């Protein structure tokens, strides 16, 4: 196991700024590109990250601390953000993600003592018994999965434009 | 074709800042993780991006403008950066990438007039005839390919740590 709470937080606290640097000011042609029917564009991925900050990571962490294996996590609706009907701008959404993340990391630092809590267990509705450190590792990798997704979705806009170079550009063939 | 020079530059000018936001200050455990023998860690990817700024994009662009199809591009050595022996810090390397990119985009803006030059052709050593707009599209997607690679390589450090969640996290199975 590599898990280390301080190192996990290093990644978690960088994600909003990295996405902001990558995306702020891009034309809609980039921001609204997707990979076909039923796939998400960059803005929808940010909405999903916001939803996970609200209803997934901290709520589950608190259930582990308070209930242990007595009460399963409520299922996380991975498509809830698609019901989102507010008219906030993309910049407002990025700011919301950044603010929620900062609040959640502050809570995480208050609630979790690594030497006491990392091996605590909870009950996942599909997987059964899971550990606090597995939940926290997943939070990190979930950030990176969706960052890579955004980068891939943007790249695919130029799939035809690169001409014969497509062969060398693995990201276009995923 | 989607290609538009201003939109391509939007992505190209954001890459150094996005990588800086993602990587600066991360522990070596993240920065020096790789995907096994013969694969690159994040720092090696940055070195490759530096090499491409020096010897790939602008030199090829200039050959198209000056020589057209008369003279093939010199081959780009995708492993040249692995011979790199200097002892610059990671922050210095990121700064070098940022500086070279800014210089190259300034040159690009001076040299290429979209209404005149995008359909110009050159001779790729493996692909044969290629267009200026294909070279420029490839520059964009090459940035995104290597950004996604860095994100994936970092994520893989926690492949075992996420426990049963691995199944939901596609990035770990690539």
Question: How would you describe this structure to a colleague?
Answer:
The structure is a homodimer of 174-residue chains. With 174 residues, chain A is mainly α. Chain A has one domain (5-173): dinb family like domain (Four Helix Bundle (Hemerythrin (Met), subunit A), Up-down Bundle), CATH 1.20.120. Helix content of chain A is 57%, strand content 5%. Chain A has helices spanning 5-23, 28-31, 42-55, 57-67, 90-111, 114-117, 132-156, and strands at 121-124, 128-131. Chain A has a two-stranded antiparallel sheet with strand order 1-2. In chain A, strand 1 (121-124) and strand 2 form a beta hairpin. In chain A, helix 1 runs parallel beside helix 7 (132-156), helix 3 packs parallel to helix 4 (57-67) and helix 3 (42-55) packs parallel to helix 5 (90-111). The interface between A and B is large, with 52 and 52 residues.
Intertermini distance of chain A: 29 Å
What order do the strands of the largest sheet of chain A run in, or round the barrel if closed?
Answer: 1-2
Oligomer: homodimer
Number of distinct beta strands of chain A: 2
The CATH C-level class name of chain A: Mainly Alpha
Helix content bin of chain A: 55-70%
Shape field of chain A: elongated
CATH homologous superfamily identity of chain A: dinb family like domain
